[in-house]
Amino acid sequence: MLLRRMETYGFKSFADKTELEFDPGVTAIVGPNGSGKSNISDAIRWALGEQSIRTLRGSKAEDIIFAGSAKRRPLGAAEVSLIFDNADNLLPVDFTEVVITRRIFRSGDSEFYINKAACRLKDIHELLADTGLGRDSMSVIGQNKIDEVLNSKPEERRSFFEEAAGITKYKNRKREAQRKMEETSANLDRVRDLMTEIESQLEPMAASAERTRQYRVMQTELTAVQATLLLNRLSKATGVMKDARQELTDLTDREIAAATQVAADEAEKEQTSGALIAVESDLTTAEAALMEANTTIERLEGKKAVLHERVRQSNRSCERLQSEQEDLAGNLDELNQSLTAAKAAAAAAADQYLAACAELDELTHSYDKAATAVELLITQIENGKEQSFAQLQELTDVRNALRTTERDTLRLQSLRTGLEKEKNQFHEQLAAIEAAKMQMQQELKELSDRAMGFDEALQTIQAQKQENTYQQQAADRDEQNMAGRLQETKSRLGIMVNMQKDYEGFSRGVKELLKNSSSWRSGICGAVAELFTVPEEYVVAVETALGGALQHIVVENETTAKHGISFLKNGHLGRATFLPLTTVRPGTMRDREQQAAQASGAVGMASQLVSCDTQYHGVRDFLLGRTIVVRDIDAALRIARDNNFSLRIVTLDGQQIHPGGSMTGGSVQRRESSFLSRHNEIASLKQSVRELEKEWQSAHQLSDELRRQQQVLAERSDKLRAEQKDCQIRQAELAVNLERSGSDRQRTLQALQTLQHEVTENSAEEAALTVQASILRDKISALETHEATAKEQVRDWQCELTHLQAEKENCSQRITNRKVASATLEQNLSSLRVQCGQSEQQLAQLRQKTAKQEEEMAAALAEIAASNEEIHSLEEQKSICSALRETVQQKRQALYEKKMGILTALQKLERRIRDGRRRHHDTQTRLHETQLMMTKYELEKNYCEEQLATMALDVDQAEDLKRPGSQEELAREAHMWEEAINALGPVNPAAIEEYERLADRYAFLRRQSDDLTAARDYLMTVIRDMDATMSRQFGQAFAAINEKFSDIFSRLFGGGHAELELLNPDDVLESGIDISVQPPGKKKQNLSLLSGGERALTVIALLFSFLAYRPAPFCVLDEIDAALDEANVQRFSDFLQDYAKKTQFILVTHRKGTMEAADIMLGVTMEESGISRLLSVKFMDKAV
User: Fold this and answer.
1) Triad 176, 181, 182: Cα angle to 5°
2) What is the per-residue DSSP string for 392-404?
3) Which of 88, 403, 832, 899 could staple 346 via S-S, CB 3.0–4.6 A?
4) Tens-digit pLDDT profile for residues 75-111
5) DSSP output for 950-1000
């Protein structure tokens, strides 16, 4: 299988649709930091089913969707597709090309596809299982994967080995089988609970069915009597209803006649009311006309008063206008005189203003000339300053060069003194080396003579140690055998204890209840299996008798039971049965059960074989009080047959006979799967552990004694060897020191020659610096002279500039004064011109006002004449309105008298209508009473018919059941049957059918129990087979990976040793895996103490060992070579090329050595901020 291509759209920084082609061999992905290289490995990991957003370097799901940039908006979804070449059919689908697609939206919704067909994430995991690309595989190693692998716990680390060993699918199947077995066990417990409950219900239900049969006979007779009573009442009601119908017809006719008379009177009343309304309307019209006439007269009077007031106002206006005309004539003369004086003053001011403007022009010309001269002189001064500054800068540079030269000269002089001193020191060292060499040669000769006596003493001690070793080995073997047996027994004891603590074999809900720490937990006494103690020989029989009741929860009261049920319901933990001590009531043992318990072959009642605290005796008797334990199946059958198969019997080997004759039997489960059996076995194992510990102690003491003797011999041998080693070390040190002294002498001679050469060069350099300093001093003198001349010239120009600036300021002051005077003259001239204009305007306004007043005078006189004429007209209209008002008042009086006559006639009609209505109401009352009586007997008739219907009878059927006798006799007979039925007590009408259904259900549950037992046994067999297969396959894979890991580690590190260890070899399926590492030249140490490069190289060795055992289709490595040095990068590259023949590698790297091993290079860049782009190079194509 090969990863051919990856297509991505909207994933992290890949905003546009991007395709990456992958060929066999090594593909390198390179690019600058932050360009999006690692997003490619994240995309592959995500498409393969990674669920952890933190692993994908995000904090929430939408972080993997392109978040937008300065020029691009965020996208709403991300999609990645991986295209695999499945020509080798490694993937279990009938396609040569398989496309796995994963898509996510910002809403959080995800979609998965296989070859464009929608699927689940679980389907992708199952498709990739055991291909080397599973969830826990090392097919994608990210930047933090190295630390994750090395820092993970041994138990977590084994998931990588399980994926490589190919047992992941078996573990998934085992978990599924265990889940099914738990469900099967829970179902079996529920079925057995139901069977137990049904067994206790069968006998009471049979008695209830018999009472129901008697009840049905009595009820038939009672029904016949009750039907007769109802028929008699029905006949009476029918006769009464017939008479009532005739009376109802007569009353209806009388009620209609009375209603007709009342209607005629009311019609006449309506006609009279209409006439009254017409008169009232005419009266209202007359009153309105009278009111209108009064209003018109009042309006004419008001208008006449207004006209009189208008005449008075017009006379006053004429008087006011005549007075104002006289005042306007005086004001007009005064304005003409003032206008003549203002025009003369304006002419004089204009002449003064023209003279001031001419003088101002002359002063402005003088100022401009002075300003030009000032600007020219400022420019000359600035140029002079710049030249002076440049000369000063050059002078500073030369002075700095002189100081540098002088410092270098002093440094050379000091260096020459030091070289002379160092030369003398080397001469002294050379003499000391010669003296030390002669002394070391003498000591070396003495040590050679001393070392010859150590060999004989060591040979003697070695012979004694060998003899002691033989004895020690024999004692150690005995101790190890004893320790192995002890450890095995302790392990089994620990497993048993842990199984008890974990309530192994109990359903999930019961486990959670017993482990719960809520406040109501104190009310739980425990499971039945915890509270009962059973002798070993009766365990199988009691367990079979209890069945699912072993997991029943004993509680103090029903309140605790309610809390437990709520806990299970809220947590969706399944169901459980509770036995409150306050409500559980054991059944009474029957005589035949006691006799059967004492029969031949019987052991006794099951409740008598179980011991428990006194407070739980009620629970014990409730569960086992009616179960008999016998020796074997033959005795059970004999006792059951003698008692008509009405007893519940259990044999010592677990066979069971139920009431009714059904039998249950077969093989039983292993002892360790039973809670009661484990309890007894734990006590046995504890005794065995105590005995084995005593035997091991004796063997350990003997071994310690031999070990102490061996230690004494070893100490003597070590002491001699240490002395011998010290002697040899000293000889080696002297040899090395002699060789070193020769090297020191040669090095000292070379140093003397070097010092002599440096002294000569120092003298030549000092002479050159002296000449250079003299030249620099001459140049400084010339520059200082030139600088003084330039400064003098600048000072002269500054004096001339001060004189010109003073002249310029004088001109500026004179110009300002002339401008102020001109402005004052111009303002006075403008003021005089404005004054003349205002006087002319006022003169024109006075003339206009005079003409307007004359017009107003004429209008006021005309208005007075018109008002007098209108007053005369209003007086004539008032006379006409007064005559009309007298006529309307007479008409109103006549209408009022007519209205009073109509009201008198209307009162008489109302009295007659009231009498007719009273008679009509009395007739209606009689009619209503008759209708009520008829309704009453109709209800009686309907009631009788309904009662017959409730008895499932019609009238004809009731006639067939009719009994003779009067109503009183029939009532007494009905009462007698009712008392007989009551004497039977409560009767379940459906008891017969329920009994039949309950018997059928019991038979069905018996078949279900047998089927569930067989299914549970089959699942246990399947789990054992899978455990054996996984143990064998994992053991083979672990050994092969360990061997390859050791070899690859040595090759990558250039030596050293590494191995994999199972922390618990006895439990291959659950044991953690530890990694033991010893780099070359170092001692074995913890992985956390390794350097970053060594840690990375260790993970690489583990990766290659997985690939060597089971080559993966492809492997993505994200900068795992970052911590390696150049030499290790080269080794890493060589391994990549070797393994690339079987595995496709995709590398994200910055290392040049790794790039050189690549067949294809993909470059990732970020031309636009926040958006990754792709470039690719095939080196094979370039080579061609």
Assistant:
1) 100
2) HHHHHHHHHHHHH
3) 832
4) 889 999 999 888 888 887 888 899 999 999 988 888 9
5) HTT--HHHHHHH---S-HHHHHHHHHHHHHHHHHT-S--TTHHHHHHHHHH
Instruction: Write out the two tokens for 173.
Output: 């199947």
Could you give the maximum distance between any two Cα atoms of the chain, in Å?
A: 180
> What is the rounded distance in angstroms from the CA atom of residue 365 to the CA atom of residue 1060?
108
- Taking the C-alpha atoms of residue 1045 and residue 413, their distance in angstroms, rounded to an integer, is 66
Reported residue count of the chain is 1184
User: Cβ(1039)–Cβ(1060) under 8 Å?
Assistant: no
C-alpha torsion 389→394→397→403, nearest 10: -110
Whether the CB-CB separation of 1139 and 1120 falls below 8 Å is answered with no
The Cα 956–Cα 249 span in angstroms is: 32
Q: Which residues contact 10 (CB under 8 A, 6 or more apart)?
A: 65, 66, 75, 77, 78, 79
Query: ∠ CA 218-223-228 to the nearest 5 degrees?
Result: 135
Residue type, 69: S
For residue 243, give the H/E element and its range.
helix 168-450
Confidence band for 975, pLDDT divided at 50, 70 and 90:
confident
Measured distance CA(186)–CA(253) in Å, rounded: 83
Amino acid identity at 973: E
The C-alpha atoms of residue 705 and residue 933 are separated, in whole angstroms, by: 123
* pLDDT average, residue stretch 805-832: 69
SS3 of residue 579 by DSSP: strand
From residue 963, alpha-carbon distances to 48, 236, 959 in Å are 88, 17, 9
Q: Look at phi and psi of residue 108 and say left if phi exceeds 0, alpha if psi is from -120 to 50, else beta.
A: left
CB 545: neighbour CB atoms within 10 A? 26
What CA–CA distance (Å, rounded) separates 469 from 465? 6
The span from the CA of 666 to the CA of 677, in Å, is: 18
Phi, psi of 1086 (to 5 degrees): -70, 150
Relative orientation angle of helices 539-546 and 617-624, to the nearest 10 degrees: 80
Cα–Cα dist 271/1019, whole Å = 105
What's the rounded mean pLDDT across residues 752-769? 75
